[in-house]
Queue: 3 jobs
Job 1
Amino acid sequence: MPKYDFGINPPYLNAAGSLGFAPRYKPEPNRPTLGALVTNPISLAPRTPSQGPRFAAYPGGFLLHTGYPNPGLSAVIRLHAAAWSRSPLPVIVHILGQSPAENAQMVQRLETLENVIGVEVGLPPGVSAAEASAMAKAVVGETLVIVRLPMEQALELAPLMIDAGAAAVSLGAPRGALPAASGKIIEGRLYGPAVFPHALQIVRSLARQNIPVIAAGGVYSQAQAEIMLEAGAAAVQFDSFLWT
Amino acid sequence: MQSHRARVREISLDKSGEAQAWIECPAAAVPTPGRYVRARSAVGPDVVLAQALFAAGRKKDGFLTAPPIPVSWTPGSEISLTGPLGKGFTLPVSARRILLAAFSPTASRLLPLVDQALANGADVAIFSNSIPNDLPSRVEVSPLKLLPENLAWGDFLALDLPLELVENAGSLLGLKSGQFLPCPGQVLVFSPLPCSGQAQCGACAVRLNRGWKLACEDGPVFNLSELIHAKI
């Protein structure tokens, strides 16, 4: 049994960006049963896709550089809030504010929506400790708050997020660089089974510090999800495994 | 979304040395030209991502895939197909002279249009840097560089264009700024489709004159006239 209880049962979720803005999910054979759904990252204002190559594969996975395109919070609520309310699973909205004030504004609009049980706050790579704390403090209140940390900064930032009042931290995909098909080197988020050992090590370290951590990164089977739980994760997120 | 059980019957190499497979599947799973199916192992995930498969040849009981295919597949592999997905080509029945042009390394994804066009009684010319296998003798094959000077011959143009070349579509066709295409056309924007429409991840986003669209959901086939930045 997981050490922390967020009311998400079973303690499995999709990672933000893996099932769309109005996640629909029907477990098939060899697929996990989820306890909650996480939306794609949503910013206050619309975001367009990144320019240039956005995908590069390597033997252990692949790199994505998409810029998290989305139509902005107002459009997402207009288009998808009804689907969230009808969802058989509770919904966690991933927010991508550019400032603490933006995040606070977004949470204010989300916390009254039916079947939305919380928010996951995405932090940009390279965020400073002070900025991260301010982002978390701005949204802590009535709703469940999970802060998604850049994996490379998770050990440094996680204690600060819990001190700021977050219920848990989750792990964002680590970043890397690869040549795209054109030969141009692109930087972006890394997905795939090769990420798992790094993610497991971070989950173990955070669990030893009694930090509620939602594991993510390279989980490609139910057995690996259970290993994450045994290592002390409060819950586990699946990302590109859901695209296999 | 419908899933279908399928089986890899045979694996072969096309003329460029890329592996392709004959897939046995129900007729409902055979993708029409330009559409795709999401394919994965039926016994559990064995790859990093599901594979988007386009048809290079079609029959009632299956289809020949365009490359690539997962390296783990062997003859007899049991697979699961979801789809067909996306929007494909719509060949005008009235078109009498069809131009097909592949700016991708393979023309395979355009080949199902050949059968359709010939069945309609149309003439077909293919422009590609790789010469496809087993084309009917009625089909004229030319190097890609000859496409601009032959554009005026066609009354419908179908392209296979990698995503990274979309911005240059007009110049690739030899069109000058402000010049219009001499005939209507459609373009299959070929892009990695990591989420195959499951997540709107944005990896396959294409800028059209009506805004950003996703090749996995809104395409991968679009009207050529929608590529405003190609100035056509």
Note: The mean pLDDT of chain A is 93.
Job 2
Amino acid sequence: MNSTPDTPLPPTPDRAPDPAPAPKRFERSSTNRLIGGVCGGLARYFAIDLTLVRIGMVALALLGGTGLIVYAAALVLVPADGEVAPGPTDTRDRAIAVGVAIALTIVVCVFGGFGLGAGGALFPIAALSVAGLAVWWFVSGERPSGSPRNVLTRAMLGIALLAGCFALAVGSFLASGFGGGVVVAALVIAAGAALVCAAFVGRARWLVLPALAIALPLAFVSAAGIDLHGGFGAKTVRPGTVAEIKPSYQLGAGELVVDLRDVKLPAGDRRLKLKIGTGHALVIVPAGVCVASTADIGVGGVTVFDRDGGGLDVSWRDFRRAPAKTPRLVVDGDVGLGFLEVRHDDNSVHRFGPGRFGPRFDGERNSACSTRTA
Amino acid sequence: MRRHDSPDRLSLTAGLVLIVFGTVLLLDSTDVLHLAFGAMAPIAFGAVGAILLASGLSRGGGGGDGGTR
């Protein structure tokens, strides 16, 4: 029933006036959250699309790590919606967290340089903290919420777990590279069996990350064909005569240089096999020697004078024919992770140092060969 | 003490994935298989992806104990 203008509304003396709207408060969202609900809280506070906020945060994260720092700070300082007002302990924790953050910023800015700005210097710290939180969340199922002290504790535990997994990964890499792949694979299977059993009688989610930490390096080593036998470090071989040239050289990790400039190679073929687990192999040949080359490289590249190639699963074939009475060196490379290079001088394009950023080929040619064959 | 009405989905999935992945690695290490990056990378990423998927589903309250939130 509609009331007419002539009919006054009854007085409502008991009705209190509407209270003033509560001031908007920036809180992390507990409903729209992927990690800590910071983007969801920002989107709600400014009444804008959540996706746009997330895109902006990712863009900031890629621009020197600013987004990660902002996110980590909001995670620690901004309460989640529905959280009680901070008590004295929370206030003290937040004050400590702010103090630590400011001190850390000053230290990094003063001693870390400004190459990429403070964000660039802080990026590893922020990324590590966020990674620690994510790891702990994955392992324990506990979202990064609660008091700043709890968040920091979880971040530290996550970082500790990451460090342990890193050590396991390095150990797995070395063991696999030295031929212990069967043992490592057996450990992965055992960890999987333990997880299956634990799924029924308890829970051992923490075992997932260590198992992956040993499985993935083994997969990498197996796929790349990395063999770490043969020693580590820099190794230079400079034979003076043809008789001193060995048919093959091997290095586990590092740089192997075979310098043949002092050798006068006779006409005909001379085979040279190089096997590198991970690193750089450089063959320096005198002018007037034709070089044919083949190489199998897991991850890396090949540079033979003015020709090069690279990527994953590289199968390099460069067959050359030498004119009569011209020596031909047949290089056969087997590199797991790294580079194979053949040049007339030691101005390597893959070695770190002055030559690294110099002209790419600077006139290098395989000019002693007559024809290139399929 | 937690009740075990149903198995923990993440642990079960991750365990099965690791057993299969480990078996592939074992065959590769014993030269029964020869997997280059072109084959190994999809297997490795698939294994990690399956574990992450199981983790996400178990956190969504779909099965198992759903985490410890």
Note: Residues 7 and 39 of chain B are 32 Å apart (CA to CA).
Job 3
Amino acid sequence: MKPLAFNRTLRQLVAVPILLLLILATFLLWQIQAAGRAQRELDHSDRITDQLQELQNHFIDQETGLRGFQLTGDPAMLAPWRAAAGPIQSRFGDLQQRLAGDPAQTARLTRLRSQYSQWLGFADAVVHQNAASLNAAGMNQRGKALMDAIRATLGAMQVHEANLREEQYRHARWLQRRELLSLLFSFLIVGAILVLFTRHHVRAISASYLRRIAELTRRSEELHDSQQWFQTTLESIGDAVIACDMDGLVTFMNVVAEKLTGWTLDDARGNSLESVFRIIHEETRVPAENPVSKVRRLRSVIGLANHTVLIARDGHESAIDDSAAPITSSAGTMIGVVLVFRDVTEERHMQSALVASEKLAVAGRLAASIAHEIHNPLDSVANLHYLLEQETDPAQRAEYLRLAQQELGRTMQISRTMLSLYREPKAPIRIRLRELIDGVLLLLDRRLQHQGIRVETDITDSLTVEGFPAELRQVLTNLVVNAMDASGPKGRIRIRVQPAEAAELRGAGALIEIADSGPGISPEAVSRLFQPFVTTKGANGTGLGLWVSMGIVQKHGGSIHIRQSDDPELPGACVRVFLPTRTFAGETGLSAAEPVAQP
Amino acid sequence: MATILCIDDEALGLQIRRAVLERAGYQVLTAIDGPAGLALFREEAVDGVVLDYYMPEMDGGAVAETMRLERPDIPIMLLSAYINLPTEVVQLVDMTLLKGEGPLELLEKLRLMLRSAGSSAAGLLS
């Protein structure tokens, strides 16, 4: 049952009985009023009967007093006669009022009154007669006749009233019975209606209530189960999880997080995240930004800074890879932050090994050029040495020596270039991109010539970036070799270096674009190219070049993208590398911030 | 005296090699790339070829292949800074020499190559 229907049913359950009871009460009230009216009519009749009786008694008193006077002639005997005169008049007045609604009785009363007047006239005559004539037979007869007439009228009135009362009494009795019966009947009907009505509704409500209870129980069980499930899941996953509230206070951490931070959940709960989750930059040891404030600021999922090291409670350090995300309520408001991180110390070692192996592979790929570059001058030097041994002309010998010197100088330069692939300054230095690219092209010159590949450069001369030259040389070598492999013999490569203005989320820098005339690249391949061990060159590639290149570029705070070229002259792939003018890579030498002291 | 055709894109190295060979008594023709070398090969009476492998545009392998097709009797020595030359190219030529092995090695190998070429040619003639 829906809440609306439930409320309506509840309202009906209250309203219908009240309405029925109100109807019943009105009906009863009407019944009671009818009964009361009947009772009042009965009382009215009784009062009239009483007054008629009183009138009769007074008449008797007067007649008795008059008789006594007649018999004795003693005026004292007239006292009752006189005493009754006042009450009789007042009774007549009362009866006149009471019988107003009954014309027959009113007519009788009028007759009675006139009869009484006649009798009074007779009595008056008796009282004022002399004593001798008091008992005259005629006199007595007349008085008796008058009084009999009065008695007859009074009797008729009494009989009428008695009949009337009897009738009213019957009516009252009938009303009483009717009242009782209708009361009983209406109670039965109302009861039946209520029973039928409420039974249906109460059943519906009760069923709905039971269903609701069952549903609530089930939901609460489900909620409990799901809570347990999430708890267990969070506890069981291999990544460390820490949740905080909006104030950055720890509310939850799983076992892995406990192990990595060295804090137990009980100890950590309520502590600030900074104290539990202490992170610094791997190389600079500058404290990394608190992820909670960063998430609060950006209101989105963030990957935390690369090369982050977590310092456990006991000072143990682990390289971690982490991300943080806002926890939002169903209403969409942010109620906390969840951090997910994992120990990548091993992975970092593995990556270092892979990076080193790629460095070797790059060197290996260059070995042919280098061998050529070194063996050519060495061959000349050996030849010159042979010629010197046999030559006696000093001028000729001097010429041979000069040539030998020149060839040795060339060898030295090649060897220096080769070594610079491996030698690296501790801190980033300012690098002229023109020089860097020229160096790379010089190293690859033999192979480019051999394959007849033409390289066009369009480089803004003065452009410099901060960084590690050997690493960037490795990246560029890698990209140019890729372009050479893609464009094939007699292909074309264009290297363009332009200043890039500051944009959202990045500062100003340089944009290096390397386009080739090769077959191009499919979008599917693009998404996989930067993963390790993905190669399009079969057995000739390690599949690490672009992966390592991306690592180096990202370390410099730059970005690298490959897409299909939109230039019809160079329809192949187009790699774009952005390098910032100022790098944050290895900012030991550049940042004034205090490094975190080793605990 | 035998005439040797030297082909190498390294101008300086080529001149020095020419001096070494001339001092050893050979007559030397030089070319700075494959096509120029092939032109000389066709025009001049050449007894042997000292050919650099690693050259732009047309490498030593391609040059040697053309020479073999045109005049298979002329011996070819392939010079290389590579340790590993393609096998099919090695099989194509009479002799290989790694740059840096020195002039004595060059002269010795050249002498052996010309002699074996001469004897097989003599054998063919007789």
Note: DSSP finds 14 helices and 14 strands in chain A.
